[in-house]
Amino acid sequence: MLSKKLLDVLCCPETKADLVLDGNFLVSTDKTTRRRYRIEDDIPIMLIEESEQLDEKTWREIMKRHGKSVD
């Protein structure tokens, strides 16, 4: 499990947007890029080329689940 301290300093490498922890993924709060970064063995893989771009519906559901604005 990632520590709160680590989560507080991590950001999306592409947009510098905040991230939310969603299961074994870190999801960017940036509504344009909607990047999702996987976590393997408690290590976030923060490479843009290794990330996944979520469809808007999935991204909105994740943001709402974590109390983040989607507009």
Question: Runs with pLDDT <50, length 5+?
Answer: none
**Could you state the oligomeric state of the chains shown?**
single chain
Beta-strand segment tally: 5
Q: At the first level of CATH, what is the class?
A: Mainly Beta
Radius of gyration: 11 Å
Distance between the termini: 29 Å
Backbone shape: globular
Number of domains: 1
The number of helices is 2
Question: How is the main sheet built?
Answer: 5 strands, antiparallel
DSSP strand content: 25-35%
Helical content band: 10-25%
What does this molecule look like?
With 71 residues, this protein is an alpha+beta fold. It has one domain (4-65): N-terminal domain of TfIIb, CATH 2.20.25. Helix content is 23%, strand content 25%. The chain is built from 2 helices and 5 strands, in the order αβββββα. The chain has helices at residues 4-9, 56-65; strands at 19-22, 25-28, 35-40, 43-44, 52-53. Strands 1, 2, 3, 4 and 5 form a 5-stranded antiparallel sheet that branches. A hairpin with a 6-residue loop joins β2 (25-28) and β3 (35-40). The longest helix has 10 residues, at 56-65. The protein starts with a helix and ends in a 6-residue tail after the last helix.
